[in-house]
């Protein structure tokens, strides 16, 4: 695989070279930092959902941080459907931070300054599309 120029992509590529499956690491961290999330995956499909949710989230992150061809739209759609699952927006957005922290942990000293800066920026942008719109979109009566 040729090394990618996009630092977010690069972070996932470097991790893939040393970790076959991020799923247990990500959810271990998620449940440690946000124990309330564990109860949300107790259904029969819980284990299946964890793997596919992470895979789809990573695909959406790569598109969001890349050329935005389509998968990035999953983020806003899922934020809305997760409202119905009872996942608060703050927790939803926290999942992205958990992914970033897991990558940083796996990469150790290979977590470069460039990768760090790109993730910081990305997390702010994700926060803006997920948390802010709810407040902005609240419908109000027009002023008379
Ligand atoms: C900590 C935050 C999150 C929690 C607690 C959470 C929880 C859940 C739960 C409980 C389901 C299963 C719903 C069902 O029974 O059908 C689910 C499904 C899903 N979630 Fe999340 N979610 C979180 C964050 C995210 C994020 C950030 C994304 C991506 C933008 C995402 C994408 C999805 C997708 C695509 C599914 C459907 C997976 C499938 O059925 O194959 N989730 N989530």
Could you characterize the architecture of this molecule?
This protein has helices spanning 7-18, 23-33, 46-65, 73-85, 89-107, 113-130, 132-137. The chain has 144 residues and is mostly helical. The chain has 7 helices and no strands. Helix 1 packs across helix 5 (89-107) and helix 2 packs across helix 5. It has a single domain, classed as Globin-like (Orthogonal Bundle). The longest helix has 20 residues, at 46-65. The structure holds protoporphyrin IX containing FE. Residues 30, 37, 40-41, 43, 45, 49, 52-53, 56-57, 60, 74-75, 78, 82, 85, 87, 91-92, 94-95 line the site of protoporphyrin IX containing FE.
In short:
This protein has helices at residues 7-18, 23-33, 46-65, 73-85, 89-107, 113-130, 132-137. With 144 residues, the protein is mainly alpha-helical.
